[in-house]
Amino acid sequence: MMHETHIGNALGVASVRLLNDLLALAYAVPFLTREDLHVLNKRRTVSGGPMAVVAPATGLGEAYLRWDGTTYRAYASEGGHTDFAPSNALETGLRQYLLKRFEHVTYERVCSGSGLVNIYDCLKDSGYADEPD
Amino acid sequence: MPNQMILGYDRTPVIVQAAFDKERPCRLCQGSLEMFISILGAEAENMALEVIASGGVYLGGGIPPQILWAIEDGPFLESFGCKGRMSGHREDMPLHVILNPKAALMGAACHAMAKHHFTENSEWGLKRKLKMGWKISPQVSDILDKAQEFVGISREDAGLLLRLDLESKETYAVMETANRLSRKQFRGKAESHLHIGVNVAPCPFNCSFCSLTEKAGIFKEDVDFSEETILRWAKMGEVQSADALNLMTTGTFSFERLLEIGRLLKREVSVPLVANTRDINHREGEKLLEAGFVGAYHAVRLGEGVDTPFKREKRIQTIQVLNDVGLLWMNCIEPVGPEHSLDDIVDLMFLAKKHRAVYSGVMRRINFPRSPMERFGMITEREMARMVAVSRLVMGDVPRAHCTHEPHSASLMAGANLFFPEVGASPRDGMADTGKGRGKSLGVCRAIFKEMEWDPDLPSNCFPGAASS
Fold first, then answer.
1. How far apart are CA B78 and CA B158, in angstroms?
2. Transmembrane ranges (chain A) (predicted)?
3. Cys staple from B202: which of A11, B214, B273, B439, with CB 3.0 to 4.6 Å?
């Protein structure tokens, strides 16, 4: 188990704070410039408005930021571990398929790197299309 | 493909690649990706609704940047907004993909710096980045957005900006905005208006912030600098390309004599002349014009009527006289000390705007030896710079320059572009000739301007047509 004071002692650094990767990413959001971002829809950002971060990687990380009157503060979320709610027949099939493998079908199971593989397996097994050679 | 699908191998990139394969696109991979994107859109919307993300939804992680065009293509935006009754909310929420793979590292660094876990001198090199993307308080941000249209700001807003923490990023934003306005409007021109203090007197009016008074007890008798001396200073100003000569006199100084000096300098030098004298009427205003003055410096001082024996109304009348007869009115919020209320300071800023001062920056009160106001201390140059910035925003498109006094660099990054180098008498000095005391020379002012990237060699903006006269 990693501990802030242990790391501090080992490195000879007075102050160490451990952040999970999503929290670190969230803290960067207020500082991102135009080159760091790709805009998907042109909407006016409400300055001081809450911001959400959704990051599918190996797992599905989520975090959000709120303006505290002086600065943005980032908060961790375990939203990736909430239940996956299908919104069409295909997705309902996906959930049924994954329920055979997992006790809970969370968003992380379908919306992450491994989630993409799960979707692939499901579509393949359900005969959606042939697997190419 | 099946060969690559060995257990334990990371199949994610393979699926993505195969879906995008131009020659042999994999239908199964395409379908998987489409479904994935649709689910991602739905989950992004879940999150957006949970926090009401009016500040934006940001897609991070390794996958979105690799499938950017597929995200842009359709199923994502369709499912980001399928939440029936709440879809109105979603319409307002900006959506971005984070492209910078180092964003999380940056965030950790930003967080550490914000928490002062690292010292100012930290070599992280992220400080610039930090400033550039710095989000400031929405309230201040809105004020500054408006101010940069050169329309001025309201009294309440000016008060708010003067009450911000001096070390806050908001205060830096205020100064940065004022700096930008001035550099644009004044086209990079630095102005030096040379103050020539024509006389020293133990003045009986005894303004408590002035050193040239009976009470201050520094000067026991009158010193009227000779015409020869004044002319020498004026010529020196001309040679060193002063943009104006401001002839400064005490309230006791003979008005007729000021006119004589004006006529002399008008004959001998080509630099525009500005008078600083007592309150005057219309007839006297016209006389100043006839003698060759193009403008007059006249201020309603802070503490007018309390720290001075003069009436505020009378001072304002004189300003009206100047405007009526066609003399340019020059002004400064002065002499600012910690004893003055911000409301009084803001009042004077708006007085300057109302009567359309050619310039109206900020001068601080200086503690001369045994000043009766010594106990209040003096405001810092940083505070001056902030006041310079706020008064600049108040003035909107009115001014032709923006002054700060005494000369210092901080205000030149906060909207000021005008210094007063000084020779002769100064109301802030214990020396009869401030050129040998506190006063800064034209050369020193030039050096500070250049250091702060203002160009003293451009023509003045304050006196249109002066060069031809």
1. 45
2. none
3. B214
